[in-house]
Amino acid sequence: MKLFLIIFIIFLIFFMPIPLKITAYCTTNDYYIKLYNFTIFSKKNKKEIVKEKTSYDKKVKTIFSKYNFKNINYKSLIKKLYNSKFKPFLRISFKLDYSLSDAAKTGFFYGILHQLPPLIYILINIPFKSTKFKYDINPIFEDNLLLKFETSSIFFFSIANIIYVLFILFKFIIKTREVPPLK
């Protein structure tokens, strides 16, 4: 019975989706990035962090220096990722409020900005399966310059999804590995 329970728990860990909520906010005065309502990065809490080179950074650099990323066939990689059935799910919403201090310019850019959601949706659907995609653009016809961008997204991923996507990526990287010439 204990073995069955352990196998069941491992099965749940590998195949149950785990939600991950990320919120980003940007205006001309303030910006922040939150993960589950915990502020990760903000203008108010900006701290100077001096990053020192560690041995871990050197190991990662040597591991990735073995592979040649220039020769990857990106077209087939994107096609493989786009047609994959085992992609993580994503719910995302964008909100953009803007004013360009001129009503004519604001109206003109309103038409241009409405061309972006289909492109963003296609780019998001390459690594993720989008279940909810909401994109709001609100022009503000005032005489001041204003830009307010807000996004909220929830990723539903399982360890099996991550392993499958990484397997596809490494398969393409290993295929393009340079072979030494024969002597």
From TrEMBL:
Keyword Transmembrane helix set for record: yes
Keywords of this entry: Membrane, Transmembrane, Transmembrane helix
UniProt-listed InterPro entries: DUF2953
One Pfam family per UniProt: DUF2953
Residue ranges of the TM segments: 154-174
Record-given protein name: DUF2953 domain-containing protein
Species classification: Bacteria, Bacillati, Bacillota, Clostridia, Eubacteriales
